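User: quick one, sequence for these tokens?
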């Protein structure tokens, strides 16, 4: 049987793709190259990093306060610094930082209303 071996991309509609790409590049260092977005190679991830594919129930509140049907998770090397950078860029920080056995998490709403989860892995946690 053929099988999926990884997530090849995250694609979504944007009111102004170029402006949003510039915002992510300036705030989180995303290697954006228009018109195609950002490409990140597996070697760019910290040791133990992974991409998660996880459908949520249609009734979940986990993506709140965004009204979108999706949420993006980005792995970062410094959660506190990343949250500070996006806040200075006008993002709304939502919720409190959460500590788990496999890392720390924080959330923000980007300039177009998308909820983004930031994940700082713990060394050797996965």
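Assistant:
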């Amino acid at each position: 049987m053929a099988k999926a071996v990884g997530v090849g991309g995250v694609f979504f509609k944007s009111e102004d793709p170029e402006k949003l790409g510039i915002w992510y590049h300036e705030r989180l260092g995303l290697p954006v190259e228009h018109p195609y977005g950002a490409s990140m190679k597996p070697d760019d991830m910290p040791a133990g990093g992974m991409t998660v594919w996880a459908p949520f129930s249609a009734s979940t509140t986990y993506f709140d306060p965004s009204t979108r049907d999706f949420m993006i998770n980005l792995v970062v090397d410094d959660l506190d610094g990343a949250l500070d950078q996006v806040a200075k860029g006008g993002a709304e920080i939502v919720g409190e930082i959460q500590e788990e056995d496999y890392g720390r998490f924080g959330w923000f709403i980007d300039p177009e209303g998308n909820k983004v989860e930031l994940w700082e892995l713990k060394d050797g946690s996965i």
